[in-house]
Amino acid sequence: MTDSALKTPTDLKGNAVKAVAHALNGLLADYYALYLKTKNFHWHVSGPHFRDYHLMFDEQAAEVLATTDLIAERVRKTGNTALRSIGDVARRQSLKDNEAEFVSPADMLAELRKDNLSLVESLRAAKELAGAANDNATDGAIDDWTDQAEQRAWFLFEASRNV
Q1: Contact 53/40 with Cβ under 8 angstroms?
Q2: Which of 19, 106, 124, 146 is most exposed, with minimal Cβ within 10 Å?
Q3: Rg (CA), the chain
């Protein structure tokens, strides 16, 4: 089986749609990177605000993971293929992993906030590409994903004020 066997029929055509799919796959890689980092911090948070941060990180990770399926399915609906492996994620992600043995809660909050705001920038760039491709469905979905990322960043900011 080749990629041609996976071509989903769509009225969206041309290089503009391929650019949207490329941007969505980059977002998908970043969402997986953010998911794993958020779960890492969920597992390793410590200190007096442990319960609050532990629960918030878990809620945020679940929201991020839920979005991955929506992004991948959007790529497929445009007649393209989505990521296939962890290696594919690693090659495409722009968010940096955190492999430190210890990260303070304050640094966790700041890093996740920064990553979510970076995601917002990438979402806005993808939205422009979707508009240029007349891909209304992707354009609209990105609005929801942007709002979610902005809310996560807001919660992380507010939680950091107590650190």
Answers
A1: no
A2: 124
A3: 17
